[in-house]
Write a structure and sequence with these properties.
Glycosyltransferase; 339 residues; 5-stranded parallel sheet; alpha/beta; 7-stranded parallel sheet; Rossmann fold
């Protein structure tokens, strides 16, 4: 297959949009395609995205602090820089600032929407159904979505940033977490990768768990980068966190798409808050056994899961899973070729 030029629009806060788009870009680059990825994640400046995605990837990092007008101007310039073989938009068919309906007619290439769950209030208020019809393909990455039954929709298994064979073995993962490779104590990892106040909350949660668990477990507060004082405050910069999950016995985080899918793919017990979001509905993604509503419940759930881990012993083999991003690349390649 000839080399294709993809543009991937992944605007949105936190790490969710960037991680999902990065998974797609990494798989496309591995097939020999060139990918231009646009992100405004506040974490993007500190992440080694190009080295993870591969030599065919170019990452355009917008300042997360840009106002609406500046964001629209940056997106307009990015789209007009060249004509791709395909444009991929993550989650928001209207764009983060509502700019895409006016810009998409200028893009002379097939358009693909990565379509996942959206708040129905947003869908109704902004006539998302009309915006969705501007796309030639909807790829539904492993969870239900408002227009999952659209005639141009294709479902795939969940997307992961790394395939199973790219994860660190348990011993190496523990070393990456600053622990003895064959240490006996189980590991609790607390993820800090959402809004700034949620990163701080993850730090505080890790501190409470250390005090409550004592010598029964090693607790690590994981952050994507050591910026903004996270390293000095005790955060361990590990990205992507998926790589070290074979060395983690209990994961504490939120109900975001990537955290939940990574925990389930690797069989890592998850204890999670359903964080409030404008567009995403985290509570629907979490099971009753995963979701907690207060600090006391979280601590009790973690302690209970650790007891089960100690009874069962360390996992005997590395995780295996199907990464749906490869099926998504197949579908997008076909759309690009049909243009």
């Amino acid at each position: 297959m000839r080399r294709q030029h993809w543009r991937v629009y992944a605007l949105g806060g936190g790490l969710g949009h960037l991680t999902r788009a990065g998974a797609l870009a990494r798989a496309a680059v591995a097939r020999g395609h060139a990918v231009d990825l646009l992100t405004n994640s506040p974490f993007a400046p500190g992440l080694p995205l190009e080295s993870l995605l591969g030599p065919g990837a170019t990452v355009h990092r917008l300042d997360a602090r840009l106002d609406k007008a500046a964001t629209v101007a940056a997106v307009t310039a990015w789209l007009g820089a060249s004509t791709p073989d395909v444009l991929v938009v993550d989650t928001f068919p209207r764009g983060l600032a509502g700019e895409l309906p006016g810009l998409l007619p200028t893009v002379r290439a097939p358009r693909v929407l990565v379509h996942r769950d959206l708040n129905p209030v947003y869908v109704e208020r902004f006539d998302v159904a009309r915006a969705v019809d501007a796309f030639d393909l909807l790829v539904v990455p492993g969870e239900d979505a408002p227009f999952a039954h659209h005639p141009r929709a294709v479902r795939t298994p969940p997307w992961l940033l790394l395939d199973a064979d790219a994860l660190l073995p348990r011993e190496q993962a523990r070393l990456r977490l600053g622990l003895e490779a064959n240490g006996a104590r189980p590991v609790v990892a607390v993820l800090g990768c959402g809004r700034p106040e949620e990163v701080v909350d993850a730090r505080d949660t890790a501190g409470r768990l250390r005090a409550a668990l004592g010598a029964r477990a090693d607790v690590r507060w994981l952050v994507p980068t050591a910026g903004d004082g996270a390293g000095a405050a005790g955060g361990l910069a590990v990205w992507p966190a998926l790589a070290v999950l074979p060395g983690v016995d209990v994961l504490v985080g939120s109900g975001g798409y990537n955290t939940v899918r990574e925990a389930r793919a690797t069989g890592t017990p998850l204890v999670a808050w359903a964080r409030p979001r404008l567009y995403d509905r985290q509570a629907l993604r979490l099971t009753d056994g995963e979701r907690v509503t207060d600090a006391a419940e979280l601590e009790a759930r973690v302690a209970s899961l650790l007891e089960a881990v100690l009874r069962a012993g360390a996992p005997g083999r590395p995780p295996t899973y199907v990464n749906g991003v490869h099926r998504a690349v197949d579908a997008i390649e076909r759309v690009a070729l049909s243009a």
